Amino acid sequence: MMRSLYSAITGLKNHQISMDVIGNNIANVNTGGYKRERTSFATMLGQSIRGASAPDQPANPADPPAYGGTNGIMVGLGSTLGSVDKIMTQGSSQYTGKDTDMMIQGPGMFVLKLGGNTVFTRTGNFGFDKSGNLVDPSTGALVQGYEYDTGTNDWSTDTGHISFKLGDLHPDTTGFPDYKLTSFSIDQSGILTGVYSDGTASATLPMYQIGIAKFANDAGLASKGNNFFVESNNSGVPEIGGAGQDGRGNIVPNTIEMSNVDLSQEFTDMIVTQRGFQANSRVITVSDTILQELIDLKRN
Questions:
Q1: 99 exposed, middle or buried (CB, 10 Å; 0-12, 13-18, 19+)?
Q2: In whole angstroms, what separates CA 18 from the centre of its chain?
Q3: For 45-60, what is each residue's pLDDT tens digit?
Q4: Backbone angles phi, psi at 159, to 5 degrees
Q5: Helices 2-27 & 263-299, crossing angle to 10 degrees?
Q6: Positive or negative CA dihedral for 243, 248, 251, 257?
Q7: Could you give the CA distance from residue 55 to residue 53 in angstroms, rounded to a whole number?
Q8: Which of 72, 115, 196, 207 has the fewest Cβ atoms within 10 angstroms?
């Protein structure tokens, strides 16, 4: 009798956690780059009442067995929280028209530096600070990428923060004197190409390439808040490279990724969770009623 009470309590607790997860999903329905989560339950270790027995093995294989085997009897002791999984499916896209907004179509994460620490995000609503650094505007985290070296005509091997301003001089002042940066664009490979002009002629030059990190298990990343993730023991190490390379997604410029929360799915899960909570509450009520009957036996 007491087992049913405690089993129902575990059910109540787990459904409370499930409702917390659903509430968090709904709260972030309009959070850019947010990935919905789901709960799964698992059975707790049960209490064994009778062990299983093997069937009779006659000495002579031709003789029929005297008795067959029996299954064990075990009473469950409730449920436990199995996991809270991140669903890393692609969110819908929203066109913004802003030059520094970008979305990853496919797997991968933007790489940023915040306070000297590396963080990762799917949210690409970036902007410039007064020094010309490309940053996450809500935290000031610096967007990381590869710089183009005009001396070697190749990309740097290590990532660094992306920084430039309109009006910057062309790095090759010998071939392009007085050419100033007038505009820039971002392509699907995440390459920022600058347009330099002296007022009469113009020249284009690649400046940076956005760094994209991929993980063996991106669902294993640890949430850090502010739409940031950090590496965990089960995510694998980040493999950083250019967009569209080695299985990384492509960049969609002038667009941001929205949340992948589906309200119809969340409301359906909410109904199922509510009914599960009610059912476990009813088990506690009925168990209490039966206990009351036992107490009343003494009075009668």
A1: middle
A2: 17
A3: 888 888 898 998 888 8
A4: -80, 155
A5: 160
A6: negative
A7: 7
A8: 115
Q: What is the mean pLDDT of residues 241-267?
A: 96
Q: Which of 133, 154, 153 lies closest to 144 in space, CA to CA?
A: 133
Taking Cα atoms as reference points, which of 272, 274, 222, 267 lies closest to residue 26? 267
Is the distance from CB of 135 to CB of 127 less than 8 angstroms? yes
Q: Is 97 exposed, middle or buried (0-12, 13-18, 19+ CB in 10 A)?
A: exposed
Q: How many angstroms separate the first and last alpha carbons of the chain?
A: 21
pTM score of the predicted model = 0.87
**Placement of tokens 């915040």 in the chain:** 114
pLDDT at 112 over 70: yes
- Give me the sign of the Cα torsion angle 236, 239, 240, 245: negative
Q: How many residues does the chain have?
A: 300
Find, among 278, 251, 232, 270, the residue nearest to 124 by Cα: 251
Domain boundaries, the chain: 1-44+77-91+259-300, 93-257
| Cα–Cα distance list, 254 to 92, 104, 190, 277 (Å) | 14, 11, 12, 44
| Phi and psi, residue 33, nearest 5° | 75, 5
The whole-number average pLDDT for the span 161-177 is: 92
Residue 63 clears pLDDT 90, i.e. is over it: no
